[in-house]
Amino acid sequence: MDILAFGVQADERPLIEKAFAGLHDVRCVEVFLTEDTAPIAAGHEAISTSVNADLGAAVLQTLAVGGTSMIAQRSTGFNNIDLAVAERLGISVARVSYYSPYSVAEFAWTLAMAVNRRIVRASARTRDFDFRLDGLLGRDLHGRTAGVLGTGKIGEAFARIAHGFGMRLLGWDLTENPACTALGMTYTDKDELLATADLISLHVPLLPATHHLIDREALRAMKDDAILVNSSRGGLVDTDALVGELRRGRFTGVGLDVYEAEAGLFFLDKSLEAIQDDTLARLMTFPHVLVTSHQAYYTKDAVGQIVEATVRNVTDYAAGRRTENFLVPAADPAS
C-alpha cells in the first residue's frame, strides 16, 4: 500500500521509514495537511497525519476524490477530524489510543518547575554574565496542593510525581482512578480544586464539553499565586481571558505546551515573519509565562510507540480488521 505521511519532523522520518520498511511504501513530507496541500495525496490509498492537520469537510472531500480511503493519525487526539464527513465519504480513520504517559507528565512537570524557579530568565541572565538573584525567587512545592484535572494515564503519572514531591493531591474527573486515590488523592468538584490548588495541571481531552474548561470564571477562581500548566490541548484554555488575568498581575507562572490557535504556527519556523496572532504575541511578553511548541509527547519512547501503532493501524486496515484504534471502522473485507 502507498502511504503519504504529512507533517513529518526530521527526528520522526527515520523512525517512520524504518517501521514501514518491508510492509508498505511510505513517502514522508514536512508540509502539513491543509486545503492547499491535500491534492498531493492523490493516488495514495492511505495517509498519515499529525494532530495539527486540517481534516475538515473540504480537505476530506479532496482526499476522497484523490482516492484516499484511510487516515492514520499519529496522535491520541482527533478533535481536528470531522468524523461524520469521513464516514459519509467512506474514509476509515484510526488514531493512536496509547503511548507513553510519562512523556507528557514529565514535560508538564518540566514546565511547572521552569516557571516556578524562573529557569528561562535565569539562563538568559547568566549567558550575559548577570548573576543576580533579583526576580528569581521561587517557592517549595513540598507541602502544597496539586490539582489534577483529568486523572487518566497521564494525569495519574503527573500525580505520582506530585506525590513524590510531597504534595497534597486533589483530582477532578468523571470517574475516580483507584491508583490516584491510593496515592492519597481527594476527588472534588472543579470549583473547589481551582480555589484550593497551588499548582493546576490539565490532562483532559478536548471535547465540546471541555472547550474553554479554563475560562475567565475559572481563572478568577484560582489563587492569585497559582501555577497553571497545560500540556493537553490548547482549546481547554480561553487564552484571551488568560491574557486578561495576566495583565492584572496574577499567577506565579503559566506553562503552556499547547495553544488554541496553534495550527499554522506550531511545528513551523516563523522566526523571520511578523506574527499576526496578537493574543500569542502578547502572551509571550509576560516574564512568568513559558510557551513551548507542543513537544510534551516528543520523546524517543513515545514517538516510537506512536509510529509502531500507526503501522499496525495501516496493516489492520489493509486486512479489513477493526480495532479499538479505529474511529471510523475499516471496510468489511466481505463487502
Question: Can you characterise this structure?
Answer:
Belongs to the D-isomer specific 2-hydroxyacid dehydrogenase family. It is an enzyme of class 1 (oxidoreductase). Its EC number is 1.1.1.28. Residues 8-325 form the D-isomer specific 2-hydroxyacid dehydrogenase catalytic domain. The structure is a single chain. The chain has 335 residues and is α/β, with parallel strands linked by helices. The chain has two domains: 2-99 and 299-328, NAD(P)-binding Rossmann-like Domain (Rossmann fold, 3-Layer(aba) Sandwich); 101-291, NAD(P)-binding Rossmann-like Domain (Rossmann fold). The chain is 34% helix and 15% strand. It has helices at 13-20, 57-65, 83-89, 101-116, 119-127, 153-164, 178-182, 190-196, 216-221, 239-247, 278-283, 300-318, and strands spanning 2-5, 25-28, 46-49, 70-73, 92-94, 145-149, 168-172, 186-187, 199-202, 227-230, 253-256, 289-291, 326-328. Strands 8-7-6-9-10-11-12 form a seven-stranded parallel β-sheet, with helices on both faces. It has a six-stranded mixed β-sheet with strand order 2-1-3-4-5-13. Helix 7 (178-182) links the parallel strand 7 and strand 8 (186-187).
